[in-house]
Amino acid sequence: MKKLILSLALMVSSFTAIGADMSHGANNFYKSDKVTEQKVTFKNQYQMNVAGNLYLPKNTNPNTKSPAIIVGHPMGAVKEQSSNLYAQKLAEQGFVTLSLDLSFWGESEGLPRNAVAPDIYAEDFSAAVDFLGTRAFVDRNRIGVIGICGSGSFVISAAKIDPRMKAIATVSMYDMGSANRNALNHSQTLAQRKQIIAAAAEQRYVEFTGGVMQYTGGTVLELTADTHPIQREFYDFYRTPRGEFTPAGASAQTTTRPTLTSNIKFMNFYPFNDIDTISPRPMLFITGAEAHSREFSEAAYGLAGQPKELVKIPGAGHVDLYDRVELIPFEKLTRFFRENLQ
Question: What pTM did the predictor assign?
Fold first, then answer.
């Protein structure tokens, strides 16, 4: 028995001390020597400051109007996690790119921090079009968008009512509405959903009367023998040097975690409704063949109008496409935007 207890203790210890998996060229904090980076801010329609990183190829002709691409980060993340990497890699291919922090996250404005507001998230992408489309070096008729993870559903929501987004791509997309209503593979019952809604509603009383704000979901702070494989996948990115980043004013206890009372706003979020109205603007859905989130890209692809394409990356899981440059199909993304931002 003592040997068994010792063995379990060592197992748990190895889980909590696990190092970052840097295989397949994981390079979240990539810094390109072929582009210039400039921090920018711009107002959305709610007069909130949205922060972003603007990338220009070093060989950009200032007298030429270039195509541009907006890149949105995973839900609960910030631009320093995944989106800066994508933005730099595509800027190397000749695009002006902009990675942004969604409102309430990172360096963008919004209180309380980590609030869920799907309509405002979608507005941030339109505000990014406003910003880029008024730059002298950007062709406002050639602006595309990429949404990674949860931002995939936000760019779809935005593109449905903003025809200035000429080409739309998603990577490892989560439908944040369905994920919260139904959970993965529709594994959550209506009764369970109602329990979550009721708990959030009761918490509003607590916070309205000055009580402590509560957070929900997000990535666990440590691994145990019982940690779910999907949580392990996120942990390896968000809680190790591979992708860990804590913005100013935040803490490890709050990064990736939405507020409990606002998270139920996702229950009313249906980004795939009327997705076919984006047509004839092209859509590209990229997902890992082994991704636990693959169902969302497949569902969106099935509902979207033409032209559309679904690309499944062999051997890739959900988080793999955040930063593993040997798996991320940058050539495919480059070709998609070159062909459709002409």
Answer: 0.94
